Amino acid sequence: MKFKYTIPASSDGMPLLDSRGKMVRRPLLQIILKGKDGKEINSFAMIDSGADTTTLNIQYAEFLGVSLDKSKTKNIIGIGQGVVSVYQGLLPFKIKEMDIDVKIPAWFVDSQNVDILLGQEVFFDKFKIKFEKDHDIFELVEVKK
Amino acid sequence: MICFFWLYYVSIQCMKNTKEKIVKSPDLSVIKKSHINKWVVLTSNYKRLVAVGDTLSSAIKNAGNNKSKDSVVIKVLPNLGYAPNVIR
Q: Which chain A residues are closer than 8 Å to B63 by Cβ?
């Protein structure tokens, strides 16, 4: 399925521009998260081919009922200043438009700069992902095994 | 005659299959700079802000009965460029 790139939020009529003066657009995917109490929320996840593993804000852990075990922490770089500690867990979600359930390893991080970043581990094995930036489109095709 | 209709039917089916659906991008312009670093709940069509909170749980709580099954929750990030491995 093909998706249009999205202009990020909070621009207030002053969109984020790249070095050529063009509006920044990102590959955002609408996903559905199922909470520990059975309630669902819709959210957006950015597909990040530069991230090793999916990384999401630590506040989702409580909603999902993921227990943050201090023995399962890991240090990463790329978010915030220098080395940042993350909790390892699992992220189950549904891709709304494709109606496909996915469960992938994830790192939960306490950062103001992270919502949900879909990284390579498992997710990029489950889907063929084609970025067609020149057409303002990205495509996801489920890998059938 | 039957052959003609069969060819017509097949060509119509092929055209349907090639016209692939492209999911539109959401218009998130309802989210303003004042929402940066906060959590917002939007209606499913992204046109109306239902609630704002400092945390995910407070945003959901503030949405109360105004939140439907299809409401969208977003962590509003600073309006800056994003690049992994860049120290902000």
A: none
